[in-house]
């Protein structure tokens, strides 16, 4: 009887872990790609290119982001970030390891290399058909990703702690994992 119970536990746990691994691969197939900003809502105004622009890339565990905010012509803001991330056991974790932030225009522009946070930012991922929803562990940031693009929402974005909802279109084809 103990041998049968032991064998059952091994088979059952293998099936469960195999399903999680399969879900992680499905999540990665939707997440991997390059995205381009379509719109940027700051809680008051909807901005579109060329006033705002950007690209976000996640591929093979590497992440890169470029964001340009020209909504105030005298106070342009741009940020370039790169780092790494992973999807394991239904959790998306990522961090930026280097950044370059530029505020202002021409000779009055100021630069810094301040990272937006330290350590990994972790999101619980929910897979629904061909769509994923990722919610940060603190519940503030969300991503909704489909084959066509993604929407990122954060009520306290950047050092200014402002609301932001950015819509991105996918500009690369889906990957096969």
Structure commentary:
With 177 residues, the protein is an alpha+beta fold. It has a single domain (2-170), classed as Lipocalin (Beta Barrel). It is 17% helix and 51% strand. The protein contains one helix and twelve strands; from the N terminus they run αββββββββββββ. A hairpin with a 3-residue loop joins strand 10 (142-145) and strand 11. Mean pLDDT is 88; it is low at 5-17.
Topology:
Layout: H1 2-31, E1 33-41, E2 46-47, E3 52-59, E4 62-69, E5 77-88, E6 91-103, E7 110-112, E8 121-128, E9 131-136, E10 142-145, E11 149-157, E12 162-170
Antiparallel strand pairs: 1-2, 1-3, 1-12, 3-4, 4-5, 5-6, 6-7, 6-8, 8-9, 9-10, 10-11, 11-12
Précis, in short:
With 177 residues, this protein is an alpha+beta fold.
| Unreliable stretches | 5-17
What is the percent of helical residues?
10-25%
Can you tell me the CATH architecture? Beta Barrel
* Structural shape: globular
Mean pLDDT over the residues:
88
Taken together, the total number of domains comes to 1
Radius of gyration: 19 Å
Count of DSSP H/I helices: 1
**What topology, given as strand order, has the largest sheet?**
1-3-4-5-6-8-9-10-11-12
Instruction: Specify the structural class.
Output: alpha+beta
Q: Kindly identify the CATH topology.
A: Lipocalin
Annotation, overall tally of beta strands = 12
Distance between the amino and carboxyl termini:
40 Å
Sheet-strand content, in percent, reads over 45%
Q: What is the CATH class? A: Mainly Beta
Biggest sheet statistics: 10 strands, antiparallel, barrel
Return the string of H and E elements.
HEEEEEEEEEEEE
């Amino acid at each position: 009887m103990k041998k049968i119970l032991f064998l059952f536990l091994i088979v059952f746990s293998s099936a469960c872990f195999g399903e999680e691994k399969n879900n992680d691969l499905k999540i990665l197939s939707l997440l991997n790609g390059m995205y381009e900003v379509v719109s940027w809502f700051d809680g008051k105004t909807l901005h579109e290119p060329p006033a705002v622009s950007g690209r976000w890339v996640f591929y093979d565990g590497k992440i890169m982001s470029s964001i340009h905010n020209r909504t105030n012509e005298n106070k342009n803001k741009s940020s370039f970030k790169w780092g790494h991330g992973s999807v394991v056991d239904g959790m998306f974790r990522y961090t930026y390891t280097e950044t370059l932030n530029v505020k202002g225009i021409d000779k009055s522009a100021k630069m810094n290399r301040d990272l937006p946070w330290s350590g990994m930012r972790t999101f619980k991922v929910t897979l629904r058909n061909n769509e994923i929803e990722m919610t940060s562990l603190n519940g503030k940031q969300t991503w909704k990703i489909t084959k066509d693009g993604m929407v990122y929402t954060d009520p306290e974005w950047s050092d200014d702690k402002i609301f932001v909802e950015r819509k991105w279109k996918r500009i690369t084809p889906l990957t096969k994992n």
